[in-house]
Amino acid sequence: ALESIDFKNALEQFQNLVEKMVIRKTKETSDMYTKDGDQIDYDKFYTTTRTLFGSAVKDQNVQAFFRKIMSNPDERPEWPEIFGCFTQERDGTSSPSKENMVFLVSEKRQITHSVVKRKDLIKGIVKVPLLHLTVTVSQRGVLTVFNKQRKSFFSYSFYFHQDTAWITGCDFLPNLQYVVAVTESTVILWDYKSKESKSDGFVIKPMKNCLLCVCTVTMADNLAKDTILMGDDRGYVYLLTITSDDFIMKQSKAEKVSQFKVMDSESFDIPKRKLHDDWVGKIKYFSALKRFGSCSTDRISSFVLDDIKRLEDQLPVKEFSVPRGVNAFTYCGKAKVIVTGG
């Protein structure tokens, strides 16, 4: 408690110091400036900061903080930056150092393996806790699976064999052990366990509307199938169930994309229902609630939370209206609350 009080007092003094610097710098740019003994230069700022926080601050962070204030006092930095938060980068070879006395910030590790190329970006990151895997997918089609040590496990560049459609989301099928990703017009199923040189998988196409998001419905009732939910740019939510038999029965012999076999979307029973009047921005299944959630910028049906059975019937769904809609949401099981962001 004493340390907490001491830090609070030190922080108040530091904020007063920054405020004086901002006022002084503002006066320097106007006719109100008169030189006096109250001027705070870098040496004075450094000495005062060191006195207040001791070894919890590093020289380079003090210097960077001072430079930010002097260059643009109107856009003053946040005080956590004086401790190196949000600004420091570490390479993957650095050894663990002593924790900061103010913030317990874990070490950052840089993955040296190049997951994506220039002018590409990550569109989805999914953790698979049971298998200690992390799945990433890039907009231009690089599917990557990392192991527990965050080293590249398997990677496949799907865009070398596909059209210009961008990938919009991904997830992991726990029963079939496949990575699922959606593009504007296709569903990709990647067998990450196949050898990199002989990547294997399936492509389900064509999908009539532009798919924007995908998630897995986690159920342990059948180990030979997986169910996924997808949202599109017309406000529809789709329910697609895939079994291991589909990989054998529904392949198209007439078309092949590299090692990926094509499956006709018309051969699947894909229930869908229009839940929103705008794009479906995100979709997620909460196994603890046995409900799925979907959100949209639609101001009337902004957020829907209901059973997946509602996608196969026309019964009313539980929906919530939020001005300007909802862009993101999550569920906290401990607090039993759902939080939305608009």
Describe the protein's architecture and organization.
With 342 residues, the protein is α+β, with helices and mostly antiparallel strands. The protein has 3 domains: 7-83; 122-274, YVTN repeat-like/Quinoprotein amine dehydrogenase (Methylamine Dehydrogenase, Chain H, 7 Propeller); 284-341, no CATH class. Helices cover 16% and strands 34% of the residues. It has 4 helices and 20 strands. A 6-stranded mixed beta sheet has the order 5-6-7-8-13-12. Strands 1-2-3-4 form a 4-stranded antiparallel beta sheet, with no helix packed on it. The longest helix is centred in the first third of the chain and has 27 residues, at 2-28. The model is unreliable at 87-97 (pLDDT under 50). Keywords: Repeat. InterPro entries: WD-EF-hand_domain (IPR051242), WD40/YVTN_repeat-like_dom_sf (IPR015943), WD40_repeat_dom_sf (IPR036322).
